[in-house]
Every structure is written in structure tokens, then in C-alpha cells.
Design brief:
Oligomer: single chain
Number of strands: 5
Order of helices and strands: EHHEEHEEHH
Radius of gyration: 16 Å
Largest sheet: 5 strands, mixed
Shape: globular
Helix content: 40-55%
Number of helices: 5
Strand order of the largest sheet: 3-2-4-1-5
């Protein structure tokens, strides 16, 4: 079975599992960071994709859930996402990602070093390892 990685766009309201109010009501450093992120996204939009894992045809956000919640609250129509599979082909339309250069071409060099970039590296590495070991199955 071949695993895939794709760059695509998602509707944040399809993936926001926790209402905005439940994410933003607490105080402290977490609250301050969350509200700083909220203000930044409101002003500049979302700079980098969220990372999602597709399991049995259903995708879950693994990195970027706060950005998805904020995008949903701000009524943004679409959010960039990188979706990878852990059990077969991704059932989503998008641009295939075969190597790290593909990510840099799509999202720009500024993504290098961002937390989501490290997650994407891991996803690509896992899919390559799995696909290499599956040849001949």
C-alpha cells in the first residue's frame, strides 16, 4: 500500500473540534500567546500550512489546531494544509509532495525552521520509508 503527502486547502469549519470560546477563555501565558496569534492571523492571515494526517479516509489536524480554530472564528474560507496518509492513499485533491523542495517551492523559504516544517519532514520521511519497504507487496 502506497502512502501519500499532498499540499491542499481545507475549510477550517470542517476541522475545528473545540469552540473558539473554549480555547481562549483562560488566562496566563497560553492565553497571551493564543491572543497574539489571533491578532496576527486577523492582520496578516495564516502564513504556513497546518499538518494533517489521513487515517482510513478521514483527516485530522496534527499541527496547527489553534490556527484552524482562529481561522474558523475569523470566517476564513480556506487554510493551507499538508495532508499525509498512514494507511493508504490520501482521498483529497491537492499537489503531490515528493520531497522537501516541493514544500519550499509552494510555501517559500521562510517555512524552513517553523514547527510545521519539522512535522512535514517527519511525514515525508515516514511515507518514503513505508513506500520503499512496500515495493513488491
Amino acid at each position: 500500500m502506497i502512502y501519500d503527502v499532498y499540499a491542499t486547502k481545507i475549510n477550517p469549519s470542517d476541522y475545528n473540534r473545540k469552540p473558539f470560546k473554549e480555547r481562549s477563555h483562560k488566562r496566563g501565558v497560553g492565553y497571551i500567546n493564543f491572543m497574539n496569534l489571533y491578532r496576527d492571523i486577523k492582520k496578516n492571515g495564516i502564513k504556513y500550512p497546518v499538518l494533517m494526517e489521513s487515517v482510513k479516509g478521514k483527516a485530522y489536524v496534527t499541527i496547527g489546531m489553534q490556527r484552524v480554530a482562529i481561522a474558523d472564528e475569523l470566517k476564513l474560507d480556506l487554510v493551507d494544509a499538508v495532508v499525509y496518509s498512514t494507511n493508504g492513499k490520501v482521498k483529497i485533491n491537492g499537489v503531490p509532495i515528493k520531497e522537501l523542495n516541493d514544500i519550499v517551492k509552494i510555501y517559500g523559504e521562510s517555512i524552513i525552521g517553523e514547527p510545521v516544517f519539522l512535522g512535514i519532514i517527519n511525514a515525508i520521511t515516514r511515507t518514503h520509508k513505508h513506500n520503499s519497504s512496500s515495493i513488491g507487496d
